[in-house]
Every structure is written in structure tokens, then in C-alpha cells.
User: Fold these one by one.
Assistant:
Number 1:
Amino acid sequence: MTRLWNDPADFADEMIDGFVAANARSVRRVTGGVVRATQSPAGQVAVVIGGGSGHYPAFGGLVGPGLAHGAAMGNLFASPSTQQVFAVAKAADNGGGVFFSYGNYAGDVLNFDAAQERLRAEGVACETVTVTDDIFSASPAEKQKRRGIAGDLTVFRTAAAAAEAGYDLAGVTAVAAKANARTRSIGVAFTGCTLPGADHALFSVPEGRMAVGLGIHGEPGVDETDIPTADGLAELLVSRLLDERPEGAGTRVVPILNGLGSLKYEEMFVVYRRIAQLLETAGLEIVDPHVGEYCTSFDMAGTSLTLFWLDEELERLWDTPVDTPAYRRGSVAPQQRSEASDAVADVVEIVPGDDASRASAITVAAALEVLVRTIDDNVDELGRLDSIAGDGDHGIGMQRGAHAALAAATAAVAAGAGAGTTLERAADAWSDRAGGTSGALWGVILTSLAAKLGDAGSPSPLDVAAGVAAGASGVMDYGKAEVGDKTMVDALVPFSSALSSAVDAGASLTDAWRTAAARATTAAAATADLLPRMGRARTHGHHSVGIPDPGAHSLALIVTAIGETLAASKEN
């Protein structure tokens, strides 16, 4: 378990500050993460990687000459926000375009894609290759749905080497896609991991048993078996990976035996001894074997094996020297330090709303206060629900986002903002601070509602219902989930539909809201019977049967609490 922290909510920020202080030779702090502390050639493609914190040396530890130009670093096990990714990419850009790569997880895809679109709108060329190396997370027929684990090192290093060699953005993208197609991984765990401040692991494995096919965010394994001998484990890992030898692969292969956080190196060496024997017996030539920690899962006791199948181009790029805080290969020539500083975006001045809208803005802030209290009261339960088939961070992510939204709304009200601007500021703060899937989606909901509220006059019940409907539509467009996928959408769509119907029938906002909240609560509870078809829980769907979706449940809790507050206010 983790033992040292101050406030768990501040852990990721304080960790990044300490990491930068300890590695100022290699990295410098920018909004959203880190970039190289050294200069890169003008016109060179910038390789930007990233993901949630808790996986060191991924992702900040892999920034430096020969590897990434920047890393967007999210909260623990939560993807970086769109704002974080955008800021890191802007700081890393050398004028040759930005290449993104990260593990194939729903929150990362949402936020990196959104940042990519913002950059393209500003004229910055961008491309992406998501890492999909985990063979246990989807069938060969659905390889595009697989998640990324320790195989991200092969894709990151290949892409960065291509950039160093002068490849253009299209060339970097093509060779990274080839590296991903030639990378296969499988992982096992003997214990789960424990987030700072938590009193139990995100999942447990019975004594003497081993989880097979685990994720790197504390997700439970897909299968379970007795703990084998070291040789038995090597045979399991190698046989499964050789069964998925990539089409056209030759005989030269890089094996990467990765520790997930608390497995001893000595144990891994015993396992690797047999791995090497098995690969050689299979007629393979081992190139540059790796045994160590490359992508961890906090304090998880476990390991993963990655096989990277080389061709002439990939092997040439793989030999590129690298010098980062956590990963070094070969000899990198002395680098000139960068004199750049993190450019802080100008704060947009608030244009005051009219009297009626400012009064509505106070109501918006009051609703956010209720929302914050609701999340604070239920944060542990939301985390527990999320840990059953996911990564257990839904409660703390919602808490971070909600508190940031309230702080931003309070400041906006004090500056005389109308209701629309107040909620818009809250939405931006929520998505930025929370990160992850829920942060992005709540940002969409609040932004859509803000656009309908505006900064002039008092919004009508029809305006509110239209804003909620726009939010529901935006969430489905953005996250690609539909009713029945076991996500927030399963509660949001019924809530929006019931709210619009009641308002259209002439009900007051209070009565319509409470009717819709009851509908959302029923719909959220019904998600217990569903198998998840989206997000991290998709791989472990059988674990979540009988348990409601945490995103749907938290939305139902929030709209119910706001409805009760509206009713109490009406009575007074």
C-alpha cells in the first residue's frame, strides 16, 4: 500500500513538482505536465505522450532527447484533461507538427482527440497513434479495441527516434503505427494497488492465486489461476504471445519484462531466465532485452511481458540513443538548454451580465454548492462502485472537478458574471481539474447548458431543458456512448427526456426537475443489469453485473439533490 502523502487530492500535482525538482537537467514544468529542458531542432516533429499519473516512469520519466518531447500528466489513473494536453503540445511544438501517442483508454482518447482538434483549428498539424498491445483486452478480430500497457515504450521510442531522424509528421505516424502493430503484451498480478489515502486495494487476488490479463489502472484481471513457478509463469507469458505473432514478423524480437510496482527485480530475473530460453528454443533472436520497470501501476505486485517484433527500419530506429530521467540507451550528445518559459494564457476578462442574469448566476453557484456536498458525501461509495470493474477513481475525480467548478463559479459571480459565463467558467474548471472521461463529459454538459442560459435575462424552464438536451446530445456525440452501454448516458438521456416533456406540458422548472430526477434515479439503478460496452469496464464487464454504473449513479444523485434544493427554495 502507499504510505506517504499530504492531501490525496494534491498527490499528483505534488508528485510532478518533486519529479521536476529532481530532474531539472532533463525536464521543465509547463501547464499540464512536462517538456524537454533542452532545445529541439526547429521543424522537428514533437512527440507528445501522456496519461494518468501512477505509472512511473510512464509518462514524464520518458521525456528527453531520443524519446518524447513532452508528456501530459493527468491525475492518478485519470487521463489528462483537454486543456492539459493542449498546453503541453503547444509548449513542445517545434513547428513540424505534433504527434500524439498514448494508451487506448476512453478518457485519454476523448481528451487527446479534443486537444488535437483545438491545435488543428490553430493551424498546428497533428496525428495520433494509440497503443493497443494488450492481447487479453479484446480478441484479435477487434485489435483496435485493445488497451495499451507496457508496450507503449516501443511505440513512443520508435516515433521519437523517427522524429530525431528527420521523418516528417506522416512518416512518424506511419512508423509508429507499424511499431504498434508489431507489439504484443500480456500481464499478471498477485495483488492489487492502493491509491494514496485509500484503506484498501482497488482489487484483491485470493492468497495463492494470480490475476491474468490485468490493466494498469487497478482493473482486475480477466482470468485467474493458481500462482505457477517462475518457469511456469514464463511459459504462460511466452506461449500466449507467440500464439499472436504479428503477420509478417521475422525472427528478431525485443523482449520487455516489466515490473508493475512492487515485484522485486530479482524475481523478474528468475522469470526472464526462462523467457530467454523459450524464445531461443522457438528460433527467435533476442535483441536488446529489457527487464525493469517501464510502466507501473502504483504498488501493484505483478509483471507483464511485451514482445516487439523488429524489421530493418524498426531495429535501426530502436538503436537511437536516448537520455531521459528514467530511461537511457546509448550516448546522447550534449544538449543545449532551452530558454523557453511556460506561456500562460491570457485570462479573458468577464463582461458583466445584466441584473436578471447575475441573479440567476447566484442560483447557478448555489446549485454547484449542492452538487459539491452531494459528491463529498458519496465520494467513497462512488470510488467503491468504480473499483469493481474499473479503476476506482470516479469518486475522487468527481470531487476534484466539482470543487474546481464551484471555485470558478464563485469567482465569476463575484466579478459580476451572468449565468451563462458563470457556468461556462465552472465547466472549464471541472474538465481541467478532473480530467478523465467524467471530467470531459461533465464539461460538455455544463458548457451546453451555459450556452442556453446566456448572460441576459432570466432563463426560462424551456431554456434549461434545451440546455440539458444539448448536453445529452453532446455527451453522446463526444463519448460515442448510447443508451444501453452502461454509462452516464443511461441516466442522462431519460433525465433530459423527462425534463423536456414536463416543461413542454407546462410544469414549473422545480416540478419538472424533480420528476426527471426520479426518472434518472430509476434508470441509473437499472444499469446494474447491464454489461458495459464502453470504457475501461468493458473488458471486465462480468464483474459489474449487479452493480449500477458509477457515472449514471453520480448523475442521479446530483440531479436529485438539486431538485430537492429547488423544492425547498420554492417553499421558502
Note: The chain has a mean pLDDT of 92.
Number 2:
Amino acid sequence: MHSNLLSILLLLSAAVVAVAVARRFRLPSMLAYLAIGITLGPHGLALLTETAGVEGFAEFGIVFLMFSIGLEFSLKRLQAMRALVFGFGLSQMALTALGTGLVTALAYGQDWKSGVAVGLAVAMSSTAIVARMLSERLDLHSRSGRQTMGVLLFQDLAVAPCLILLPALAAPGDDLLHALAVAAAQTVAVLALLIWLGQKLMGRIFDTAAKSRSNEVLVLTTLWIVVGLAFLTAQSGLSLALGAFVGGMLISETAYRHHVEADIRPFRDILLGLFFVTIGMMLDIHYVMANAHKLVLAVFLLIGGKAAVMLLITRVAKTPLAASLRTAAQLAQGGEFGLVLIELAHQLQLISVSAFQITLSAMLLSMFIAPFLIDRAARLSGDLGRGDWAHKAAAIHNIAVHSLDLGQHVVISGYGRTGQRIAEFLAIENIPFIALDVDPQRIADARAQGINVVFGNADRPEVLQAAGISRARAVVVTYPDAHSAERVLRIVRSTRPDIPVVVRTTDDKDVARLKSAGATEVIPEVLESSLLIAAETLVQAGIPMQRAIRHVRAARAERYASLRDFYAPSKK
């Protein structure tokens, strides 16, 4: 018991430090968990060992990941992107799997079943790494970004068939077609039954749970559905993850989709982190070091081969070379689902230990390299990750058109709830403004109401110039991320040292850094909410409203230097 507690304490301590470091350098936390498993696992410092309990929890990480993918599944989205998803995505998966299978069979002496297993695993790319980087670089809606996301969406959809195919390949006997036919028939029957019942019952189940007006009941209902469907598919001879995917897909058609996604995220992130730790623990550092030449070749073949495949596909589709290079770099790494498939292939004894170790090592190393490769490819293409030149020119032109008639206006960076409230107040006072945001749906909704919101990210100098920063009277930065806000501040100050800049932050810890970066005033949400709560508490406790307000004004006067005179307590 005490040894288990010590292992858990060690794991949590390492996770806190490693994830904090990864976040500091803006790397996916997945890489931090992998590093923990590699370093502390049985092939590293041997401070952590695999147990049935740990492996069970880690498997549920994949269950919740597949559930999240199911929640994101949308027939409308698939319809809108069908050419990219089934054209680029299918071509990428087929060519990469075929090429990897041939290399595995010819260069590494494995049989064709091993080649298929390794090929399918290697064909997957990292949605976690790529989607985040594209979002941060405002590249999701460029030509390369759309192509990349189309391929990633197809890969997500292909996981479920792969989870069915690999056990069929490992089934005893030589009649593979018969095994595949039985597996396909069994899968179709089980999934058809689950989907038919789920469509009839899912909405009613959540409606009943919602009537309790308890978030706890909704969370428990979601967990019950996820675990229950995973159990049913497992009892039917299919995978746990497949049932979870169906559950997510069914819930995505209900009105509770976004609520469920927010509730399930903590479970998913923690359990998925544990899964990546167990993956890292499987890596035999000693074997890898002894076979470093094979690993170097495998990494070169993985990154180079996947990049070459995407370069070929995009050039055949007449994509400009710069966008083709970015798409190729964005998909030239292993992915989290690839790790799932290679581990499953290893468990099913479809691949040898040596092939597993080399492939796993190459995939992990490619994922560590991916952020730097994507950044380098963006720089080489001459666009710093902002998308192709046509996309960039159109976006800048659109911003300039909407700011052309503005002067002495306010530039609002981010049109979330805070930005919307600021815009309301400015409109009441007849102060012109332009708001920049990167959420297409939010922009469409605002434009439908006649509000001046355009697609753009203020952490780019050309975007601020197009928004009329030289003519503006003030800038407001509403990003919750202090790093993004700091980038905007430094760009604004390099252009307009004199302009007032008000910055929102979630708490007090980033105030000093944002002030030093050039913020005129930093408003921490936690301070304002705490002052309002404290004032209301005083009033409810019997303190006169005027005296409670004086306390609030005194606290504000001490905190906000530029508003000291206004908030100073009255001497009357």
C-alpha cells in the first residue's frame, strides 16, 4: 500500500514539473507525459513499474479520447470537407501505410501482417500537436491548414476500422478473409443496434438527468454511458474505445454536447496523460541506444516518407509549393492514435519486440521534433505560419476594408464575452471600434447583427496596421492567455508607444509581466469578481451599502494606479 502511494506521489510530482515546463515552452503536455514514462519507467531510472491497475486506468484514457472524437464527429462538417477528408485523407493513409508496410517487410524482414500493422500506426499524425500549433499561428483557415485538418479528420475516423482490422489480422488460422468478414459483420450488427437504440434513448436519458438540475447527476450519467457502451462493445468481442466513440457520436447529436465535453475533459486529460506515461515506460532506452543506427534510419524514413507522400498528393492537387511544404511538415510525425495502434499490434503479437521498440522510438522522436519542423517549414515558406500569401492578403484586405472609415476608434483583440461587453459599452457611447477574432462562428454571428468584427489575430503587426492602429485612440486585449497578450503588447508598443492599452488577465500573477510589456492597465478578473462578492457579502451581513462600496473603492484605488483619483474614498 505504502509503495503504491509512493509511486503515485512520484508520478504526480513528475507530472506537475514536466507539464509546467512543457506549458512554459508552449509544447503539448502529451510530450511531458511521454518524457516522464521514458525517464522514470523500468527502462530508465526504474522508479515506476507497470501494474495491472495502472494499465487499466491508462486504457480508459483512450476510451475517453475516443469519446471526445465522437463528440467532434459531425456529418455537416464531414459533408463540407468531404473532398479534403476522403481525397487527401484516404490518399495519405493508403500511400503511407503501403510504403511503410513495404519498408517493414523488405528492410526489416517482417511479414506482411506486421507491415500492415506498422503502416497503419505510422500513417497517423498528431492531432494534439498540429491542431494547437495551427490555431496559435492563425493557420487553420489557410489552404495548408484546411488540407491538414482534412487529413487529420480522416485519420480520426479511420481509427475505429483499424481497431477492428488488427485483431482480425491476429486471429488464428490462415483464412484472413473469413476472419475479416466475421469481424465486419459482427461490428456492423453491434454498432447498428447501439446506434438505433442510442438515437431513440440518448436524448431522453439526458433530458431526465437534466431535470434533476444537478451537474453531478449529468457527469455521472455521462460516465455511465461511456463505460456502459465500452463494456457492451468489449463483451461483443470489439474494443472498449469503439463503444466510447459511438457514445460520443450519439451525444453529439443532442443539445448537451458542449456541456458533456466540458464535464468529461478533466477525466480525459488525466487518464490520457497516464496512458502516455505507460507508453513512455515501454520504451527500452538500452535497446534503442544499442540500435541507434536503425532508429536514425527509421526516423528519417518516417518523417521524410510522410512528408514526401503529402508533398506528392498536394502537388498533384495543384497546391502552391509553399502551402504544400507547410502541409507536408504539419503531417510528418507520429500521432497519439498511432501509439494506440502500435501498442495494440504489440499486444496481439503482430510485430516483434525489435520492430515495436524501433517503431515506437521513431514515432516518439518524430513527435518531439514536430513543433520545430513545423516552425522551420513555415519560415522557409516565407510566411511565418500565417498561411499562404493569397489567404494572408485576403485576410489583411478584409480587415483594412472594415477599418478604412474609422478614426479615433478602439481596437478590441478578442471578441469573447469580455470583448462583447466592451463593444456594447462603446456602442452606447458612440465610440467606433473594430474587433478581431479567430472564431468563424462568433464572427458570423456578430456580423449578422451588424457588429464590426473581422477575422484576424492581433499578435501580427500587419493585422494591427490593417485595423488602423495608427489612427486608434485605444487598444483592449481580452485574451485569457497572458503569453498571447504579451505578444500583442510588444507589437503595439513598437508601433504606438503612446496609445493606452487595457489588458484582461485571469488573476494577479501576470500583472507585473504585462505591465512591463507595456500595458497601461491590467484588469485581473479574479480581483474584480472578489470585490463584488465581498461587497455583496457585507450588504447581506447588514453593513450599509454605502460603507460596502467605500471598501470596494478603497481596494480599487490601491490596485489601479491610473484610476486612483476616481476611486479614492470620499472624505465626507
Note: The chain is about 70% helix and 5% strand.
Number 3:
Amino acid sequence: MSDTASADGAASSASDTSFFGHPKGLAVLFFAEMWERFSFYGMRALLVLYLTQHFLFSDNESQGIYAAYASLVYLMPLIGGFIADRYLGPRKAVLIGAAFLVLGHFGMAFEGSGSKQYVTVGGVEREIIGEGRGENRRLFIDYEGDRRSVGFEAVGEGEAAETYIQIVDHKGTPERADDEVLASVPPAEYQLDTKREAPFVSILFLSLSLITVGVGFLKANISTIVGALYEPTDPRRDSGFTIFYMGINLGSLLATILCAWLGTEFGWAYGFGLAGFGMLAGLITFIVGKPWLEGRGEPKTPVKISWEAITWIGGAVALMPIYFLLRNDAIVSTALTFGAPAIFVGMLIYALTAFKAEERSRMIVAILLTAFSVVFWMLFEQAGSSLTLYASRNSDLTVFGDFKLTAASTNFFNPALIVLLAPVFAWGWTALEKRGLNPPVPVKFGLALLQVGLGFLVLVWGANAFAAEKEVDGQTVVLVPLLWLFLAYLLHTTGEICLSPVGLSMITKLSAPKVVGLMMGVWFLSSSLAHTLAGIIAKQTSSETVGGVVVDSAKQLQTYTEVFQSIGLIGIGVGVLVLVLSPFLTKGMAGVK
């Protein structure tokens, strides 16, 4: 496609109002991304629970795997954006990514029979049988020829506390007073051993690798195509990205209800399998809707068949190092913790030396705001790890009467609130713009950071003031009313709306035209670093588990409140800093709003 044709296409976009006042190509991207996010978030809602309860990885291992996976998922768009900019164009890159994603999500449905854990007492080894998923998981053991429940008792206080394994006869009633403790074994007298099915562990990591490569090709480039639908000065751009962001969260909402429910109630394979069909629907939507894009996302010169073949082969070859990194998450954590800041510094030097005047100052502001967004996502992305486990272990999931959510389904709070509130914010930004009161992008970033930090402090307040002991199948657990988790997600969501769709739009507006794809990759690099840092934080909330069940509920809640309070204060502090700097950052945007 020639440069002239591209310019004509951009000009025609101003009169294209076929999709709620926006170009009809937005509809294709809206639904394609909706189904892609359906698959991604459907799997995400279940992943940490799946790792801890099906494969019986420890909290540290599970949250390390999750952090490495999420970090690589958001790192790969840096490469995918570069390949699209230089060779393929965004549309073909999205198509290749979608194909990898279909394979990866369907691969997650091959789960095997799960890992097995054994306890050895007095030289006798017995299997600990885990039944149920999420907060409904219960442990049993064959004891003297009968099936008995397995429970835990914390003996002692503080760091000196020890966890005794108890074998309990519930007498067929739920009352703890009727329980008979048949054996109570101190730590010095038992040994735990976990045995995993190696082939299915390999399938798990291969599937995660396929998804990682797929997202790398798709994620940055589909957002780039959204930006290409509009002229640089088109006032509909921000609201267009917000509508696109609604598609992301509509897919997430459906997934966290349907996939989470199926996976928890009927089996992991059902939840992951439905996520795979969602991704297949996204691929079909993108292929069928190609004419509506009217050439947006195509390279300036026709792509050679050899480059397409090299990209397919390269994606397949990339599975091997990604597989290795997922199984060795410490390497990812170390590399990103030191490497990502170096890339940000390198991009700043590049902006200072390769560009001039307003183009240079805009690039610098884009890079600085991207760096500040790391703190936001570092806190926000506790949702897929520590907050999901918090919901399973220390949140009373009762909504009303006998109706309860599952721990995985609490992930739906965020997308549900996005779907409800994003139109309000989109209308609000437009209304404020007409009155000259629309806050500049740096102010929105500062407000987002304040809200995500406040969300954790609200959660801590609820835990400190309203936590209560409750008997569940003879075990004492400490639970916090679900309202406080909801309020935390509400504040995180309003913060996200202030930052994320505006951030995507910011990259396309502030970046120099020749490096838009690369800068979109840098934007996702910030999420990659954030997920690594989020994993480090999540590991601080880890607790001792047996069979995927936490052994000391009260101690676990105390750990959550201590960590959540610390990161809540960090979010508020950085938010205040960004607000103080906002006049200088706004000036550096050189008239771009």
C-alpha cells in the first residue's frame, strides 16, 4: 500500500461513523479483542488456583510461575510490535498471534489426573486426597480402613507456631463439637511428598508458552490498528479507545463468570476448554471482518512470503526458550528487574538523540508516564495472584442467603465495573473537554495511582475491623465480608479507567510516527516489569499449604493485611508525586491532549 493510499484512508476515517459514531473497523477490533480477552481472562481467573490445587505447587512456586508467565506475556509485544513495524504490518501479526493462542488455550484443557501428595507418619505412607476446587476444596485420607477428613491446628504463637496435621471424624454432622480427633501429628513426626505427572506438567508449560508467543504478536498490534482508524487530530480517538477497552472487559466479564464457574464447579478442563473456544471465535471474527478494516494495519509495501514463513518458524522456535523461562521464573524476575529499567533509560537516550523539538519532548513524556504506570500495574495485578488466593482463603464469598461466588469468579468485579463505568467515563471526558475542564493525561495517571493504593487500604480496614472466625467442615477459618474485596476492586477499576485506555491513546498520540509499534511494545514492557514486581509482592503473601489448602487461616490473613497496607501506601505516595509533576509533564506534551 502506498503512502498516498494510507493518507486517503486516514482522511476517509473522519466521515466513517458506522459503529456508534466511530469507524466500522472498530467493530471488528472490538469483537476480535473481546473474544481474545475472553480466552485470556478465563484462563487467568483459574490459573493460580489450578497451579496450587491441581498440580500442588506451593504458593511461592505458583505465584512465581504466574508472574513469569504474565511478565513474558507483556514482554513479547515489544518484539511483536517491532516485527509488525518493520516487516509484516499489524494485521498479519495479529493473525499469526491468534493462531498460536488457539493452540495454547486448547492445550490448557489437557490436565491429567493431577498431582498427588502423600504424608508419611511412623514409616507408613498415606495419600492425602483433595476433592473440590477453589474455596470448596477439602482434604481426606484413608485412616485405618475408613475415609477421614484432614485438618490442621496451629500450636503456639507467632514465628514459634507449628502446624499439626489432624485426622478427624466429623460424625456425619457439621458441628465441631461432635468431631473426634483421631490423630494429631506434630511437624517433627510427619513428612510430606508431592508426585507430579511429568507429561501433563510439560503440556501445561508448553500451553503457557504458546499463549505467550500468541499474545506477543497480537496484543500491541491490535491496539495499533485501533489508532490507525483515526486521524491524529480526530477528537473521537480517546473515546474510541475507551469503547475498545469496553470490548476487552466485556470479554473478561463473560470469561470470569462462565470459565471460572465451569472450571470450579465441573473441572479445570471445562473452564480452560471454553476459553479455547472463545479464542477460536476471536480468530474467526478477525478473518471475516478484514474488509471492514479498509487496509488499516497493512504494511506500506507488500510482505514477502518468505518473511511470513520466517515469522511462523520463529514463533515456533521461540517456544523453547519461553518454556525454559517459565520453568525457571527466577531468571525472568532477575532479568526484568534489572533489564527493563535499562530499556527505559535506553529509550530516553534514544528520544533525546534521535528526535528534536516537540517530537522529542512528547516522546520523553510518553516514556516517563509509561515508567510511572509500572507502579500502578504492580499493585493492580495482584488480582490474578494474591487477591484470588485471598478470596479463596480469607473472604466470605456469601452474597446473600445461600448464594455464594467462587473465588475465581471474584475476578469478574473488575470487568463488570468497567463495562458499567467505562461509558460514563467516556462521556465524562468528552463533556469535560467541551468545557475545557478535561484533566490532562498526567493528572489522570496520578489519580489512578491514588485510587489503586486506596483500594488496598480499604481492604486492610475491612480485614482489621470486620474479620470473624467461622467453622467450615470442622476447621476454624478467619473470613472478611465480601463487600470489602468488592470496594477494593471498585477503586482499582476507577483507577484503571483513568489510566489504561488513556495510556493506550497517549502512546499513539505522543509517539513519533515511525516508532508507534515499538512504543506500544514499551508500554506493554511496563506491564511486564510490573508483573515481575507484582510476583515479588505476591510471594510475600505466601503461606504453608497441604494439598492446596492453607493450614493457618488467621496467620494467612495477618500476612495479607501487612503486605496490602505497605503497597497501598506506596501507591498513594507515587500518585501524589505524579500529581505534583503533572504541570511539567503536561507542558512537555506540547499541545497534545
Note: The domain at 3-112+197-588 is CATH 1.20.1250.20 (Growth Hormone; Chain: A;).
